[in-house]
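Lecture 7, part B: from sequences to assemblies.

Below are the input chains for today's worked example.
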Amino acid sequence: VKSGLPRGFRDILPTEARELHAIERTLMNAFAQFGYVPLEPPTVEFAESAVTVDERRTVRFLDRDGRLLALRPDVTTAVARVVAQRYRAAESTLRLAYFTPIFREEASMGGSEREYDQAGVELIGDASLRADAEVIALLADALARCGLLGADIDIGHVGFVDGFLAELPLEARAAAAVAARSGDLVGTVALARDAGMSAPRIIALQRGLRHRSADLAAARGDAPASSQRALDTLDALRPLLEAAGVGDAIRFDLGYIPALPYYTGVVFQVTVADLGFPIATGGRYDGLLARFGADRAATGFGIAIPHLHQALVAAGWRTPAELPLLVLVPDTGDGTTTLRVAAALRRAGIAVAIGDVAEGAGQDVRRARVIDGAHVEYEGVVRAVDAVVAMLRPGVPR
Amino acid sequence: MRALRIALAQGTLLADTRLALAAAGLATDALAEGGRRLVVPSTDVEYVLARPGDVPTHVAHGAADVGIVGKDVLLETDADVLELVDLGYGRCRFVVAAPTGSVDRSLDEYRHLGSLEVATKYPGVAERHFQGRGMQVEIIKLSGSVELAPQVGLADWIVDLVSTGRTLRENRLSIVEEIATCTARFIANRVSYARDRDRIAALASKLERWAAR
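Predicted structure of the full complex, as structure tokens:
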């Protein structure tokens, strides 16, 4: 029997799995506090539905019907499809949340996983700036509840750079936009210059791409009118974020250009020091749902759970304190006494494993030995079961 | 504040890179020739000396905040980094080359046989180029002396990096087509560029002024 695993897939062993479950509970509770309800799309979709991810990065295969399928490369696509199919008639706002594995094809030996958890929300059918502020505030709140400290939220607007490029001939405009999304800012500026962008505009574009500050005035200069409107939007967003209680963590970063082409407005990413990848990214994508036949405004974010987990562990985070696990060493009898004592302890809210545990998964594991139906030896002293419960659950009235 | 970590490509670019960094006001004495250290602390910054092909990987993963490496390497590795400044030096060209006088013959062969064999050290660049052209080619990955391949019948054409073109001429090869002109680039990790914008943007502006001198 072959005992390895396909490249980029791995076992999540109990200690890590417990931590991931704790993160999942915390995030889904935070999402629920803002009225977001869970959605669980299937693992497999038609490959042609996966429009938000480069096709070379989707994990694809044929089924017996000869249809080309893809393992879900992200959840936004699935949400867009669900909304277009199941909520076609809905006119008011949908708030959906998820925590689920996604699958990406990665280059061999690149140090990347092909399956990892992503959590996020999608807010469908609200085009207002208040909706943009809501998802940013929710993201900040959810990460803070997880215990993430020192995170920066960088907020940009795709309309800023688009405003400059809109003045170029169509072909140069498309090429410059592709370069900008791929991170080639040298190429973006060179293409704009070659296509005849004026010198003051070039200077304003370069200044904008380097602009990261709460104050946008310095980026206005010679920016075109539609770029100015993007800056107006960000200026209007600031008081909303302050009212939502997240004014301190935010920076306006006009050089933040997401890799995906579907964003249409306010975009954002969350970073921490000493981690080379963003923890979360998101923004407004008003054009995407129309591709599935439901023209609805939409905004949302996705959190890369491995990066969040990595940042939390690097900062010394551990799963929130739980009651200890009690390992009950049986008496010499036929087992009835041991089972009776274990049942009594569990009724009192104590987690009990009989015999031994090889994998404590990072829990606080204590030991007790069964003496008789009402007594165990715990910490070297024979005690009544009730007394042990009181020691393990201090402060809980019986 | 933590020192800004700068990944530098060892080899032919390093001499000009030292000039560029010195012009941008950074101390480069620690990068003196003949040093054996690969992580070199300096004033306010820390240099990491890596093989050119590894510099984009260091920066993409955030092991280094910024780096200086040739566009040729960026094209081949396709790493997710931000390209901030064209430094202008280390100029070279990615070209398609064929034995002198045989281009028509190989195109005729292509019509009959449906595929050309292309030898290269840069399979990523070669594959994307011919895909963009809509031509079917078999890429043959070699580790060096690619000019040899057409002479011994290993491949019809080559995709290679040339600076003066002398090696091509000496091996009786002519340029069929230019793919891209490449120069040294100042690159940054996406997160470092967000969080450390003041230092990185200031360095980019100084390097830009030096490159435009």
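Note for the exam: Chain A touches chain B through 24 residues (CB under 8 Å). Keep this in mind when comparing with the next example.
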